[in-house]
Design brief:
With 275 residues, this protein is α/β, with parallel strands linked by helices. It has two domains: 1-33; 36-74 and 129-175 and 186-272, Alpha-Beta Complex (sialyltransferase cstii, chain A), CATH 3.90.1480.20. It has nine helices and four strands; from the N terminus they run H-H-H-H-H-E-H-E-H-H-E-H-E. The protein has helices at 2-31, 37-49, 67-72, 90-100, 108-118, 152-156, 184-194, 204-215, 253-265, and strands spanning 136-140, 160-163, 218-222, 270-272. The protein has a four-stranded parallel β-sheet, with helices on one face. Strand 3, helix 9 and strand 4 form a beta-alpha-beta unit. The termini are far apart. 25% of the residues are buried. Its EC number is 2.4.3.4. Belongs to the glycosyltransferase 29 family. Keywords: Disulfide bond, Glycoprotein, Glycosyltransferase, Golgi apparatus, Membrane, Secreted, Signal-anchor, Transferase, Transmembrane, Transmembrane helix. Disulfide bonds join 137-216. It is found in: Golgi apparatus, Golgi stack membrane; Secreted.
Length: 275
């Protein structure tokens, strides 16, 4: 009886040590981008179970996809502008110029040409989708529901992190080779197709979400919507009137949030509410 109890205790001790060590190593790996063992292993696992559209276990596009999603998701509309795709339809051009509210707008083609004399013109950027790619992306908003959520390791684990309204220094030294320009055609596509013309134009957060859906295979969303008490405010403030922007009509935050929830319900994105 005593020997049996001793064996059970030893087995329990070894098991507890393995669980503790694995948990520690896994959490440490997620925090430290220099350690890629688990990321590599999980990507390989996803490749094994993938259906061929991408290297992830579940891809943004599936062979037998949801009709609602299929009607809206159009990979031929690239999010980023280049010289090659900078030509706008009349409808898009007039809508875009109306947003600028300039009485004497500059010549769009001339602006584009000057722009790409300064920054790189790469028409193939993020057009690398295929059965071997499993690009994971985190879209991080600025909702108060981020506070105390402890989502940091999960966010850091992603291949790409897209953060909106990140605090910046008073002086910014930018690398021109890393500047990307949204395409006005993509703006209009998001506004017409995904938001069905709600509001004046899409919010930065919703554009970031659709951008991620077009360049990534697996998208996780953090810091969107209200906190657990229904307050729409930013994580850095205690302003419970922060949701007043919803009344301006510039962005239809409720409609954008409902579309985001629907995407989560259809398992197109992972949506972390913070509570």
């Amino acid at each position: 009886m005593y020997l049996s109890m001793q064996k059970n205790f030893r087995a329990f001790t070894v098991l507890a040590f393995i669980v503790t060590f694995t948990t520690f190593l896994f959490s440490f790996t997620l925090r430290d981008p220099s350690l890629y063992f688990f990321k590599y292993a999980i990507h390989k696992s996803d490749n094994f179970f993938s259906k061929g559209q991408c290297g992830c276990r579940q891809c943004m596009t599936e062979l037998e996809d949801d009709p609602w999603f299929t009607e809206r998701f159009n990979l031929s509309v690239h999010p980023l502008m280049s010289r090659k795709n900078s030509l706008l339809t009349d409808d898009t051009y007039h809508w875009w110029q109306k947003l600028q509210e300039h009485e004497d707008p500059a010549n769009f083609s001339e602006v584009v040409e000057k722009l790409f004399q300064v920054i790189p013109d790469d028409d193939d950027l993020y057009k690398d989708a295929g059965p071997e790619r499993c690009r994971t992306c985190a879209v991080v908003g600025n909702s108060g529901n981020l506070k105390g959520s402890r989502y940091g390791p999960l966010i850091d684990y992603s291949d790409v992190i897209i953060r909106t309204y990140v605090p910046v220094r008073s002086r910014i030294k930018a690398n021109k080779n890393r500047v990307l320009i949204y395409s006005p055609t993509f703006f209009k596509y998001v506004f017409d197709t995904w938001l069905e013309s709600h509001g004046r134009y899409p919010s930065t957060g919703f554009l970031s979400l659709l951008f991620a859906m077009h360049i990534c295979d697996k998208v996780s969303v953090y810091g969107f919507g209200a906190d657990r008490y229904g307050n729409w405010h930013h994580y850095w403030e205690n302003n419970y009137n922060g949701g007043d922007f919803r009344e301006t009509g510039v962005h239809d935050a409720d409609h954008e949030y409902n579309v985001t929830l629907l995407l989560a319900d259809k398992h197109k994105i992972n949506f972390f509410k913070g509570f």
